[in-house]
Amino acid sequence: MAEIKIRQVAKQYGSTHALHSIDLEIADQEFLVLLGASGCGKTTLLRIVAGLETATSGEVWIGDKRVDKLPPRDRNIAMVFQNYAVFPHLTVFENIAFGLRMAKLPQTEVDRRVTRTAELMHIEALLKRYSGQLSGGQRQRVAVARALAMEPEVLLMDEPLSNLDALLRMEMRAELKTVLAESKTTTIYVTHDQVEAMSMADRIAIMNKGEIVQASSAVEVYRNPAAHFVGSFIGNPPMNFLDATSAGEGVWNVAGVQLKGPVSTQKKLQFGIRPEDIIVHQEGSAEAMGDRPSMVATVRVLEPLGSHLLASCRIGDEILRVVLDSDAPVKPGDELRWSPAPDRIRWFDPASELAVA
Fold this sequence. Notes:
The protein is α+β, with helices and mostly antiparallel strands. It is built from eight helices and 23 strands. It has two domains: about 5-225, 3-Layer(aba) Sandwich (Rossmann fold), CATH 3.40.50; about 235-355, CATH 2.40.50.140.
C-alpha cells in the first residue's frame, strides 16, 4: 500500500510562511494534482514529500511508515522534473537503466524493467538512440520511463510537460494518464496549468498562499468551488462575480434584480455564475425564470473562439462574461437580457471569500 498522509506540514523561511499546516491524504494508486499559481507552495510541498526539503513541522507517511526523517533514497519514491535530465552520453536503454544499475540489480532484472517501461511509454524502438537524436516529447517519455523502471511506491512529477509545445502536451497528457493507470503507482503531480489538472487528475488539490483551498474531483471544483479563489482560478473564462446586497431574509439584490439565495446575517454577498451557465433571452423578451425577471447587460467586446462566441458585457461598473453560440446575432453596444441557470449559482462571503451554503 502506498497511501500518503501529510499531517500538519508547515514550512517557514525566516519570517515567510511557505506552507501553513497542510493536511492531505492521497489514496493508494490515486493520481493527485497539486494546482496553483507560482509561489503558492505546491513545489515546496512536493519536495518535502520527496525529502529534498525539510518541513519546519509536521509528518509525512507513506503506507505505514513515517518518512519525513528519512533520506530520499529510503522513501521508495521516484521523481520527474521539469528539466528532463536525460544523460546525453547514454543511450535510451542506459538512461532508463541508470537507477537500476545504481541499485545493483542483476542484468536480467534490468532488461525486464527497461523493456517493460519502454513498451509502456511506446519508446521500445528508440532504446539504442542517444538523447540528441530524440525530440522533446521522446526525451520526456525517457524521463518518465526511467522513473517507472524503479517500480516506486510513489511517483512525484514537477511540471513535467511545461517545456513541450501545446499539441505535444495534449498528446502526453493522454499518454501519461493511461500509463500511470496501468502502472498502478500513487502519483502526485504539480502544475499551474488547469487544463492538465482537470484532464488528468483523479483529484485536484488547489493551493493558494501556502494553503489547500479545496481538494476534490475536477467536476466538483469546477461546479462547486469552495472559495472565491477557486472559482476565479478554475475555468477559462473564469466564474463571473457580481455584488449582492440583502433585500430581506434569503433574498438578494443582484444587478437591480431580486434573487432567492442563502439565509445569512451578512448584508453583502457575492453572486457567482459560470459564463456558460447564463441563459440569454431573445431581444425584447420579458421572459422570467420562475419568479426572477431577466437582467440586462451591455455588450462591450466580442471574441470569436470557433466553437463559441465570448461576450464581455458591462453591468454598471461590473463585467459579465457570457458564452454565446458562434453565430449569435449580437454586436458591441447591444443589450443582452439574461438569467442565471438556477442550479448553477454560487454565493460567497466577501469577508472570508468562502462559499455560502
